[in-house]
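[Solved] Which block belongs to which protein?

Original post:
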Amino acid sequence: MKFRKYWFRRKKEESPWPVYGEEKPRIAVNIILFITTLATTLLAGALQEGVNPLKNPEQIFKGIPFSFALMGILLAHELGHYLVAKKHGLNVTLPYFIPAPSFIGTFGAFIKVRSPVRDRRMLLDVGATGPLVGIAVALPFLSLGLWLSEVKVVQGQMGTNLGSSLLLSLLSWLIIGPVPEGYDVVIHPVGFAGWIGLLVTSLNLLPIGQLDGGHVAYALLGERQNKISKYVFIALLGLGIFGWQGWLFWGLLLFIMGFRHPPLMDWWVPLDYKRKVIGWLAVAIFILTFIPVPFSGF
């Protein structure tokens, strides 16, 4: 099944540890970046709807469905990290959004944890909550977007094929049903935002270095995570050579960031049963949302 997107168309637990390096938050930069990213995603959504912002600036509002859905997913992901980190008494910044002149208008968002994560429980809570909250918000947007999408014969229009994951294929089968041969799903902007949410979730859950998935894998498996990082890196290089070349770029970034996860101060503190379940749930979500070839057919 092909999905196609057109760019032009006719506190439960308190930490016993003190907060380190606490300082008065400076939120002006966070607010400016959020507003700027809201504007760039709004523009990206309008362009996807065929709006020329120079000729018809009054129609930029057509980008609202895509922009608000995508910003909501990214904000939910980062607030998941932020709130759990604060619950554990960690010194953490508010989210920094990254505007970008790209077809989605952003390079994502991030937070900075300024104090040490001391044990595996803290690490898993902070690492897993962002992707879990993000996917919980992305799924309703994706489902609504699939329901609003069209199934049609596609000829002579500029666009690209969006890759599918196990979870996306299941949702599409449940909501749209079988797609006849020669037809594509022309995905609605809200659905496209949900698709990006799934992609962002899977990228963050790669069990490498200090990505969210690296935190989860280290909390579950300890030093074995460092070997897993290398195996996953080799697999990404293979996908980049024989599939989507964008994986080579991601591989380069991950190589620069490093494969090893830094050791924890209180490494002997064990995970309880509930956290083990949450950790393996995050692993399952990574498998279900991973898209081997995100884009094709430019």
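(Second protein starts here: sequence line, then its structure tokens.)
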Amino acid sequence: MIPEWKETTVDGPRTRRWSLDRAQCAELATHRIAWLGLDTVAAPYRRVRLAPSGSFLLACLEGEGRIFLEGRWQVVRPGQLCLAPPRILNAFHAVARRQWTFAWIRYEEPLAVQPLVHSRSPLRVAEGAQEIGRVVSGLKAEWEGVRNAAMIHHWISLLHGLNLRVAQPARAKSRLSSLWERVSLAIAEGWKLGSLAAEAGVSAEHLRRMCRRELGRTPMAQVAYMRVQRAQELLHGTDDKLDAIAPQVGYHTADVFIRAFTRSVGLSPSQYRERGREARSSAGT
């Protein structure tokens, strides 16, 4: 059953938060960073963001929490890094009797720009969180201390560079990269694990291992993710009806497409399209 989501902000009495946004620090806008922070939280801490306008990264430093990724709740533990593309559901919460410390970064990315996190990005990485945590902590110390403009610039540039390395790994010539390029050009095809493996020239099991290692998900989950990304583009860029969009992104019926899209994004395709129209209207475009 697909849950009914709504925008949620709950902190609770044991939550300690530090954050910095671009209204306070104009240097963040140089890299399209809207907001970042370092939080230590406990239940009932909870966040739900239905369709944020930019990429999101969460680096778990201590304890554990829960994050909603690819249609299900998953545990996030120290050292793990979670990513989410723009305009897709973000939801995470603390669990009872467990303190959770994490760094986080939200970007602001208009539709016309290539987002930091996109269809070739991993959504879960087993390493890199501590490095991002140290940089956010360094920025916090500088901001609360001397606040030297040059040092602020260097901390933010380093942070963005680490984010870029994780979200857009340099594997342009890898076998997987070539595979996903071909899938992207034929996203409407009825891809199965066997046909993906044949296209990549490896066994199904080897493809599964490669995909888990590079993207943190199965090959078929990657196809589903790419289909949702393509559907988002069509919902924003065309007035096509849902029963016309569904076959363009590999779904036989609009009903199946609606269920898959809602499970991943947290909004139905119609709700998603309406939010996009509202955002463009408020921006004067």
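Accepted answer:
You had them paired correctly. Confirming on the second one: DSSP finds nine helices and eleven strands in the chain.
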